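Chain A, query sequence.
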Amino acid sequence: MVTGTAAQKHRRTAWRNWAGNVSATPARVVTPTSVGELQEAVRRAAGEGLRVKAVGTGHSFTAAAATDGVLVRPQALAGILSADRAAGTVTVAAGTVLKDLNLALAAQGLSLTNMGDIMEQTVSGATSTGTHGTGRDSASLAAQIRALELVTADGRLLTCSEKENPEVFAAARLGIGALGIVTSLTFAVEPLFLLTAREEPMGFDRVTAEFDQHVAENEHFEFYWFPHTGNCNTKRNNRSQGPAAPPGALSAWVEDELLSNGAFQAVNSLGRAVPAAVPAIARVASRALSARTYTDIPYKVFTSPRRVRFVEMEYALPRERLVEALRELKAMVERSPLRISFPVEVRTAPADDITLSTASGRESAYIAVHMYRGTPYQAYFTAAERIFTAHGGRPHWGKVHTRDAEYLAEAYPRFAEFTALRDRLDPDRVFGNDYLRRVLGA
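Chain A, predicted structure.
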């Protein structure tokens, strides 16, 4: 029989991710206020035979952070620790939320070069799972890391960079929580600049036919295709000399709040209740967003509020395979009984040198598929994943997928390098969990 006190304790320690598709009940939750406290928490857990996982704001859709052992919440380890303007770097505590980092950098006249489309994650959570935006030349958040510190399984604090522990640095920038708990990250930054965003509706056939041209001509190009339609919305971000010309308050509210959140929430709720209405809703929704151009500082252009909750799968493909795969996805949706109310997102990234980055060693294009939270997604994601894997796709580490270590060892030329490093740093799998067992092997 569970006592009232025990039940209350159970409720206090239960954890659920943002999308609500992953939950865990750890033995205990710790919120260290210093690196020393974190080291001691790791040593204690290892001594008790408990596994340890750190969790940020829960924006991953996989169980990468789930544990029945000790759950570390690093939010008290937050803020900019130091800035070196001459070197163009800023060192940040691991629990810092990206929104707070962007605001603090802008206040100092600084910015990251590229970023994803939301900023609710912690810096360590975002980089450890491979969060990225879109870019012809500028890569993911992890690729902008110049140094990091992490607590290893024996409680040591390891400093890593291209010069110090370079083999760990190559892997730990995107470590999926398998190598240790990151305590700080040093990012490359640059003086604050302006971006001009040009958003424009465009037909599916045109945008896919001109895809390579759009990528070549723009620093940052992405587009969204609305399933059950031939309609897309494109976005091109390029550096600007100014002056700043942000969207007007009313325009921003209509586009970012009313249409992208409020009305979008309503139509998704309707689509979940009446799936047969989804194609008609999609045709209306895909025509609701109009062309607009605005100029602002980077985080106000790269990121948008995303309050409609969903579940997501995203795969990185060799960039030259993107158009073929996307056309196959469209054909699959059209001949199936599926009803998809969320747009499909397409972005790009240059090749990087991070061991398990989805863009490791190859120019990449990403296809992200989403389903509204509470809507069955397995049939859609299974069919999409079959297409993506046929084109040599690599799944995003923090988004829904079914791949295992056998598949991933073929997809990543440096996979064995990562697992050998994990064997050295964490032979007893203090930082292990079921997800890592599946994707990295036992």
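The longest strand covers residues 194-203. Confidence is low (pLDDT under 50) at residues 1-11.
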